[in-house]
Inverse folding.
């Protein structure tokens, strides 16, 4: 399913890998989904920065231990869920401004 989306969007040249829950047949917010990323990337969960525009997704990501960035589209109000994002942005270019301000 994801392969077709990547191919139809002409993103295959920009991506090294695509991971899908299809391989484990479990869905978010089950921690096994987030562990899939840790295992596939071969890194610690604290090294992953994950973006989502869904409050429930950010909650699951942050609770698992990922650095979650909430992309607040359409001016939605923050949801009262466990876990906190490391950053809340309205557009993806805002993250570039955030990290360039923190860099040396």
């Amino acid at each position: 399913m994801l392969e077709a989306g990547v191919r139809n969007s002409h993103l295959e040249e920009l991506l090294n890998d695509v991971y899908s829950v299809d391989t484990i047949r479990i869905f978010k917010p089950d921690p096994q989904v987030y562990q899939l990323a840790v295992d596939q990337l071969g890194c610690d969960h604290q090294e992953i920065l994950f973006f989502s525009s869904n409050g429930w997704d950010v909650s699951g990501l942050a609770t698992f231990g990922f650095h979650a960035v909430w992309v607040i589209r359409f001016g939605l109000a923050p949801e009262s869920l466990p876990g906190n994002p490391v950053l809340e942005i309205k557009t993806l270019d805002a993250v570039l401004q955030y990290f360039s301000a923190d860099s040396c």
